[in-house]
């Protein structure tokens, strides 16, 4: 297929669109795979400003591209109408057009318009494109190295900002504790804290707080130096013998207990056991008669066999895409907004899920859906419907989330250089 690209005259041309068109004319293109580019673009989406419906449209277009078009002389051109994309995303055609324009202006796609404005692709017997008009992802292939560097820098910046937030919280508490211990300097230190908190950049704010804390410690260091006087101390001999033998003997049953009292105790224990069994059976019967359960009850049922360590081992792609480590439930809850945007899940639907199954269970189910979608996008065509179906099974008590996570955790990663089937 010829590398000549055209942009119809009805489009409003911008410098970004022209730059993408020039990238689509590149002749020397690195060989890659569809899976590698899909994961790379999903990781780079936050730094490129791609989110919401634009992210959903990008995911659909990448899924429609063919694997053989990402290597050799192939050009990954996708021919799909705006009406069909609007049907897939449940959005208007105008919204879809704006999303495609967003992908073009950020430099990962280019317009390849035909004279009639229709999008179509013709291939020869070998599967190579002879004539193709539609959305061309050649710019993403040409910028492969640049996008990798961009993702690395973005993840490093997120890690630095996270460390800066922890440093700011620690130093602020330390200075506040010093102000309580030394009220003479409290006003001055509070003023310096307020000045440092006005800085927007987190790294710079952390550096300013380190200076404030170091100066405060240096000022009060002479007061803290020296040895403590022993005046008023008393002599106390430590008593470390806990005498466990006496404790055990005191709790043991005396051997000379009368036979009559022992029979009474046995009858009492039997009566209590019988009453406990009756109460337990009545409780199980009443629970079986109830048709609805609260969100916390469903959450307890779903997460009874799902520790956070299992989610950490199973959701490898989620952690790679978000640049975080899901080592705690709070960290998983902080990534809910980003995970919803990854699969095009609206905040209203996710809030409804939290009310039905509880906040932690909803976050765990969402992470599972995103992990499955990231590993095989063609397996889950509608993540929102998949998420709602898992909620229904959780409410009915039929969701085995631990089995799904153990399966994801045991699934081996593809070897380096081997393409991932999407």
Protein model, in words:
By secondary structure, the protein is mainly α. The protein has three domains: 15-142, no CATH class; 150-220, no CATH class; 295-410, no CATH class. 62% of the residues lie in helices and 4% in strands. It is built from 20 helices and four strands. It has helices at residues 15-24, 34-48, 53-64, 82-89, 93-105, 138-142, 144-181, 186-197, 202-224, 244-251, 259-289, 295-302, 308-314, 316-322, 329-334, 336-342, 347-357, 359-375, 383-396, 401-410; strands at 77-78, 110-112, 120-123, 129-136. Strands 1, 2, 3 and 4 form a four-stranded antiparallel β-sheet that branches. Helix 7 (144-181) packs parallel to helix 9 (202-224). The longest helix has 38 residues, at 144-181. The relative contact order is 0.09. Mean pLDDT is 80; it is low at 244-257, 281-291 and 412-422.
């Amino acid at each position: 297929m010829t590398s000549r690209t055209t942009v119809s005259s009805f489009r409003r041309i911008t410098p970004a669109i022209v730059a993408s068109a020039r990238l689509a004319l590149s002749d020397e293109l690195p060989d890659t795979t569809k899976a590698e580019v899909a994961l790379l673009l999903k990781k780079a989406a936050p730094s490129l400003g791609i989110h919401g419906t634009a992210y959903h449209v990008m995911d659909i277009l990448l899924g429609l591209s063919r694997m053989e078009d990402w290597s050799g002389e192939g050009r990954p051109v996708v021919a799909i109408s705006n009406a069909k994309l609007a049907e897939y995303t449940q959005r208007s055609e105008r919204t879809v057009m704006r999303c495609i324009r967003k992908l073009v202006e950020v430099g990962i796609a280019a317009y390849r318009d035909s004279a009639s404005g229709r999008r179509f692709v013709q291939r020869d017997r070998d599967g190579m494109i002879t004539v193709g008009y539609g959305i061309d992802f050649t710019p993403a292939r040409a910028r492969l190295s640049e996008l990798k560097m961009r993702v690395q820098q973005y993840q490093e910046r997120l890690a630095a900002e996270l460390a800066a937030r922890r440093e700011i919280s620690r130093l602020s508490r330390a200075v506040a504790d010093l102000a309580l211990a030394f009220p003479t300097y409290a006003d001055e230190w509070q003023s310096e804290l307020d000045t440092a908190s006005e800085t927007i950049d987190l790294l710079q704010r952390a550096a300013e707080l380190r200076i404030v804390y170091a100066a405060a410690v240096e000022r009060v260091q002479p007061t803290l130096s020296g040895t403590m006087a022993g005046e008023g101390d008393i002599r106390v001999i430590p008593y470390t013998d806990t005498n466990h033998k006496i404790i055990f003997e005191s709790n043991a049953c005396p051997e000379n207990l009368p036979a009559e009292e022992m029979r009474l105790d046995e009858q009492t224990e039997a009566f209590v056991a019988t009453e406990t069994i009756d109460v337990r059976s009545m409780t199980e019967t009443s629970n079986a008669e109830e048709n609805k359960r609260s969100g916390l009850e469903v959450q307890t049922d779903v997460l009874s066999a799902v520790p956070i360590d299992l989610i950490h081992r199973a959701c490898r792609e989620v952690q790679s895409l978000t640049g975080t480590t899901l080592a705690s439930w709070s960290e998983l809850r902080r990534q809910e907004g980003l995970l919803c945007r990854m699969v095009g899940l609206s905040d209203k639907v996710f809030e409804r899920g939290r009310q039905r199954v509880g906040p932690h269970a909803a976050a765990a189910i969402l992470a599972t859906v995103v992990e499955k979608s990231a590993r095989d996008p063609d397996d889950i065509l509608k993540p929102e419907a998949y998420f709602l179906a898992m909620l229904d099974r959780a409410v009915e008590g039929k969701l085995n989330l631990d089995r799904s996570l153990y399966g994801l955790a045991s699934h081996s990663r593809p070897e380096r250089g081997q393409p991932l089937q999407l």
